[in-house]
Amino acid sequence: TGSSRPQRMLKAVQKNATKGDPKSVISAIDSYCRHKEWAMNVGDDKGLILDSVLTEVNPSTALELGTYCGYSSVRIARLLSPDSKLITIEFNPAFAIIARQIIAYAGLQDKVTLVEGASGDLIPKMKEQFGIKSFDFVFLDHWKDRYVPDTKLLEDCGLLKKGTVLLADNVICPGAPEYLQYVRNNPRYESRYYPSNLEYTKVEDGLEKSVFLG
Ligand SMILES: O=C(NCCCCc1cc2cnccc2s1)c1cc(-c2ccc(F)cc2)cc(O)c1O
Ligand SMILES: [Mg+2]
Fold first, then answer.
1. Residues whose Cβ atom is located within 5 A of ion ligand 2
2. In this prediction, what percent of the chain has a pLDDT beyond 90?
3. What is the mean pLDDT of the chain?
4. Is 54 in the pocket of ligand 1 (CB under 6 A)?
5. Beta-carbon contacts of residue 176 (< 8 Å; ≥ 6 apart)
6. Is there an atom of ligand 1 within 6 Å of 141 CB?
7. 1 has pLDDT over 90
8. To test the ligand 1 pocket, which listed residue (37, 38, 40, 148) has its Cβ within 8 A of the most ligand atoms?
9. Does the interface ipTM go beyond 0.90?
């Protein structure tokens, strides 16, 4: 059978990027997805907002829900301080295989732990399995109808602390209306919307940044 979109994306990275150079991996994926084949990476426009929030937070421990091919894992991990770590959760084994290779190609495998499984199952195991006290930063980019239940789960598992920053992708397209309702009307969060566009398109989308107030 033929190759998959993630496999073709990996090939584009291996062909056009420089091993160990995260910036070239990001550019190779953006160029491929903009000019050859669209894919659901956070992309270069929203990626700039992700970069600026990350630089501001400078997290020691970051969580990403929804790895896909590892594009945002590379964007996040390249900006982490030396001893900081990113845990990224992916549900689909076929995506995880590609993501591991793209993260490794960027030379960031020592900063990123990719865990396969469903967020609802794995979040309660974070403390015991990965020795996580709490997360400083969470990037939500998985099933849009899991944003609210998983945020509540992170709260209930004591994985959020005063000042933890949640950054959610796709709050307009495909949309996460319940999540916007939840974080915008909740006294425990200070929320702000960053308008942008859906990756590689002119369609409106944006990121919602929510600071947990404890
Ligand atoms: O669905 C999206 N992302 C989620 C897919 C991953 C599912 C997972 C579930 C799960 C559960 N537990 C742990 C890990 C995970 S990963 C998504 C979709 C679009 C889009 C697609 C078509 C379109 F026309 C317009 C926008 C754009 C985006 O930026 C997206 O992120
Ligand atoms: Mg997304």
1. 141, 169-170
2. 99
3. 98
4. no
5. 144, 145, 147, 148, 168, 170, 208
6. yes
7. no
8. 40
9. yes
Label residue 124 by pLDDT band (50, 70, 90): very high
Q: What is the rounded distance in angstroms from the CA atom of residue 173 to the CA atom of residue 46?
A: 12
User: Does 75 contact ligand 1 (Cβ within 6 A)?
Assistant: no
Give the CA angle between residues 71, 150, 121 to the nearest 5°: 90
Is the C-beta atom of 118 inside 6 A of ligand 1? yes
- Amino acid occupying residue 117: G
pTM for this model (two decimals): 0.99
What pLDDT, on a 0 to 100 scale, did the predictor assign at position 2?
Answer: 86
Q: How far is the CA of 97 from the centre of ligand 2 (A)?
A: 19
Total residues belonging to the chain = 214
| Residues with a known catalytic role | 141, 144, 169-170, 199
For the stretch 71-96, pLDDT in tens is 999 999 999 999 999 999 999 999 99
